[in-house]
Design a protein that fits this description.
single chain, Rossmann fold, seven-stranded parallel β-sheet, 7 strands, disordered N terminus
Length: about 280
């Protein structure tokens, strides 16, 4: 089978790599994943399907969703897809309703869809800034609120895992996504308290330099810096993210809410991360 990208796993590896969790862990559960056509989203979809979940997948490109869905049906799981942009609050609300109609409920929502590009902040265009904020922050919120409303209406519990970034030290040349992802983290902490009476847990995964198709958005020099971005001097892989989502989103995380589990090899403490290339000033 083909590579998802030269920076990720082959589809065969996504299916066959041993998992840390037992078979059937998510039997009878329904998981919604945004941005599921490639990268982390595709990997998480396959991992949850391998653990028994039924999947509802959304993303912008139907052909990519179809390929992920084909892998899931090959694993004997039920799957539905919806091509949309999470920037459209009405489309998101309709999709959440469709999930409940199709599967009778929703157990876990994983908000993975997002986008960004490496550039010096002083050069951001208004359009570029707004696009990143609108997708990464606003779109994530539309997904969260729409699901929470359905859980409240149906009187059923729910769990949300937001895929964010390792932002505790900021992210030079990625200031727009640092702003949006930081917003998602503090938003998640806020509603984790508000929604606790509704039995809704809300957590985040703060992801550092983890190899995926998203690596294609950076220059060669930028990608090279990723190996100096943390004290482990390497990058993570998609199973690091997917299995962390299983841990937080499932029964293993039943007493965890408002938390950000950071997966960055120690980047929050030490490292030199320059997605668009290290300025000469810092070589002095």
């Amino acid at each position: 089978m083909a590579h998802d990208s030269k920076f990720g796993f082959t589809e065969q590896e996504l299916i066959e790599t041993p998992l840390a969790f037992r078979d059937g862990l998510f039997d009878g559960r329904t998981v919604l994943i945004s941005g599921a056509g490639s990268g982390f989203g595709k990997a998480m979809a396959v991992v949850f399907a391998r653990l028994g979940a039924n999947l509802y997948l959304c993303g912008r490109k139907q052909e990519k969703l179809d390929r992920t869905a084909e892998l899931i049906t090959g694993l004997g799981r039920q799957v539905e897809t919806a091509a949309l942009t999470i920037r459209d609050a009405d489309a998101v609300d309709q999709m959440i309703g469709a999930v409940f109609d199709r599967f009778g409920g929703l157990d876990l929502q994983i908000n993975n869809a997002g986008g960004q590009f490496a550039q010096d902040a002083i050069d951001f265009s208004v359009k570029g800034w707004q696009a990143v904020i609108d997708t990464n922050l606003n779109g994530t919120w539309y997904m969260m609120q729409a699901a929470a409303k359905r859980w409240k209406e149906t009187g059923t519990p729910g769990s949300i895992v937001n895929i964010t970034a390792s932002v505790s030290r900021g992210i030079p040349q990625m200031a727009h996504t640092a702003a949006a992802r930081s917003g998602v983290i503090t938003l998640s902490k806020s509603v984790a308290v508000e929604w606790a009476p509704l039995h809704i847990r809300v957590n985040c995964l703060g992801v550092g330099t983890v190899a995926s198709s998203g690596f294609e958005n950076y220059t060669d020099e930028g990608r090279e810096s990723f190996y100096s971005s943390n004290p482990m001097r390497r990058v993570g892989d998609m199973f690091d993210v997917a299995e962390a989502a299983v841990y937080l989103g499932g029964a293993t995380g039943k007493f965890i809410t408002g938390e950000t589990l950071t997966i960055d090899g120690g980047q929050q403490m030490w490292g030199d991360h320059w997605g668009a290339g290290r300025p000469e000033y810092f070589d002095r």
